[in-house]
């Protein structure tokens, strides 16, 4: 089971590809929601208000992917899908790539457009910091204060990532566990006397 994914850590620097006087500015952004996608598009349309096209593709999700590709007035499948093809080629997700075109007066034809949008998207990805991350499951471990040592021992032995904790009379510790190790860690806590473990939904 694949339990890693690749994404970018921050927005790419602006890149520029030129073909027969047309300019294609490429941008890559890390995104987690469609709302973030729309905010970046609005920002670029304000920044490049004299441009002719703002073509883009995005993909969201770590295992169940959602994506969209938009030609924004260019001939069908000449812009959005070539951009999305680069997202697939680099195997990245939670990402938005936008290519802004300033028309240079010479028509490039569908082949020329596909090459230009693909190249600008590729350049934006090559200029980005791409990181591989693990897909984690989050659990809450519930116990009474006297059981603290037992719980902390399991956490230390397995080098678990504690993301939050509430240590009072009734304690709760939230842990993130790599997906492939999740069942094993669950059973360790589940088999510990007076300790309850629950998986949290994404």
UniProtKB/TrEMBL annotation:
Every Impact N-terminal domain range: 20-125
UniProt xrefs under Pfam families: Impact_N
Coiled coil: none
GO term, biological process aspect, one: regulation of translational initiation
InterPro entries xrefs: Impact, Impact_N, Impact_N_sf, Ribosomal_Su5_D2-typ_SF
Bilayer-spanning residue ranges: none
GO cellular component, one term: cytoplasm
Family: Belongs to the IMPACT family.
Protein name: YigZ family protein
